[in-house]
Amino acid sequence: MAVQSDVKKIIDGQKMTFLQYSTIMICFLMIMLDGMDVLVIAFSASSISEEWSISSEALGIVFSAALVGMTIGALLIAPQADKMGRKAMILVCTILLGSGIYATSLAQSVNQLMLLRFISGLGIGGMLASASTLASEYAPDKSKDFWVSMVMSGYPVGAVLSGLVASEIIPHYGWRVMFQFAGIVTLLTIPLILFFGAESLEYLVKSKPKNALKRVNRILAKMKAVPLQTLPAVDNSANKTSVARLFAGKFLGPTLFLWLAFFMSFATLYFLISWIPKLTTIAGMPERFGIYSGTVFNLGSFVGILVLGGLAIRLGLRRSIFVFMSAAAVLMITFGNFTGSFVVLVMFGLIGFTMQGGFVGLYPVAARIYPAEFRTTGVGWAIGAGRFGAIIGPIVAGYLIGAGFSMTTNFIIFAIPTIVAGLAALQIKSDEVS
C-alpha cells in the first residue's frame, strides 16, 4: 500500500476514531472550565466586596484585569502553539489557569486579586485559541464546523455549572473555597490531557519538532491508519510564525472581516453578559428575574451553538452565522415589546440562542481560513482583536445607562454591531469556508 503523506486526507477519509473523539472532548472540557473560571469572580464579587469593604469601582478594575489578561493571552501566548504544539500549549494554559484560580483564594488585597485575575486571564486567552484549533485539526472536513462549535459550546455550560456550584459553596463556605474548588478541578484535568489528548498531526508534520515521525506514527497507529515512512517535504520558508502573514496576499481581506466580526460580536455579547441581570432589575422586574436571566441566556446559548454547528453543514457556515446574527438583531430590536412580563426570560433565551450561536460560528471560520503553520496565531489574534470589543461594549453600555437610556433603547443600539458582525462574516471570502 502506498504511503499516505497527507495526514489531513487520512482524517477526512476515514471514520472518526476513539483518539479523535477523546481529543475533541478534552478540548470541550477545557473550554467548559474556561467558562467556569471566567465567571467565578462574578459570583464571588458580592462576598469579596462585603468582606473587604471595597467599592464597585475597585471590583470593576478587577474584572477588567481578567479581560486584559485574556486579550494578551490570545495575542501573545496562543501564537506560541504554532511553535510548541497545540496540546503542549493547552497543558501550559491549564497550569497557568488552575494555579492562578487557586492562588486567588489566598489573595489579601485588591492589588493581589487584580494580579491573579490577570494571570488567570492569560491562561483563558491562550486556551480558547489552542483548544478550538486542536479540535478543528482532528475533525473531518465535512463535520469540522459542528465539532468546533460543539467544543466552544462548553463555555456557556461552564458558566451555568459555575453558577450552580457557587450557589451551594459560597453561602456555606465562602468565596475562597469556591476559588479553591475551581482551581483544583482545573488542575485535575492535567492527567486527562496527557493520556486522552493527542498532539495535532498537522502541526507535527509541518513543524517537524524532535521525533516528529515517531510521534506521528504513534498517533496514526491509535487511529488504525497506515504509518508514514518519511514526513512529507514542507516549505521551510513557511515555518516562521509572523502576525504579518495574516495580512499577506489572500489572507488580508478575510483577516480584516474576521476581526471586524469578532470585535462587533464581543462588544454585544459582553454587553449582554455584563448588563442583562442589572438591566432586568432597573426595568422594574422582580430581582429573581435578574438572577434567572443569565442562566436562561447561557442555556439558550448552548443549544444555539449546537444548532448552528449542524445547520452550517447544510446551509454553509458564513450564511448560517449571518442568519443567526440577523435573528439576534431582530430579537433585540423588538425586545421592548415584551418587558414587564415573564416572557422576557424566553426572549433572553432566544437572544442567547441566536447571538452566541452566531458568534461561536466565527471560531471554525477562523480555524478554516489559516494553514496549520500559523493557524493558532490567526485564531488567537482574531480573538484578541475581538476582546477589545469585549472591553468597550460594557463601558459604552454603562455610559448609556448612566445617561438615562432605557433597557429597550440599549438593546436597539447594540443590535447595530450585531448585524454588522453578521454582514462582516458574509464578506469573508475563502475557499476553505462554506
Radius of gyration: 21 Å
CATH class of the largest domain: Mainly Alpha
Helical percent range? over 70%
- The SSE order reads HHHHHHHHHHHHHHHHHHH
Query: Which overall shape is indicated by the principal axes computed on the Cα atoms?
Result: globular
Number of strands: 0
- Helix and strand composition category: mainly alpha
Fraction of residues in β-strands: under 5%
The CATH topology of the largest domain is Growth Hormone, Chain: A
Please give the alpha-carbon distance between the first and last residues: 33 Å
Number of helices: 19
Molecular structure report:
Helix 13 runs antiparallel to helix 17 and helix 13 runs antiparallel to helix 19. The longest helix is centred in the first third of the chain and has 35 residues, at 18-52. The protein is mainly α. The model is unreliable at 1-5 (pLDDT under 50). It has 2 domains: 1-234, Growth Hormone, Chain: A (Up-down Bundle); 236-434, MFS general substrate transporter like domains (Growth Hormone, Chain: A, Up-down Bundle). It contains 19 helices and no strands. Helix content is 77%, strand content 0%. It is globular. The chain has helices at residues 7-13, 18-52, 56-77, 81-84, 86-104, 110-138, 144-152, 154-173, 175-187, 190-196, 201-207, 212-222, 252-282, 287-315, 317-333, 343-360, 362-369, 375-402, 407-426.
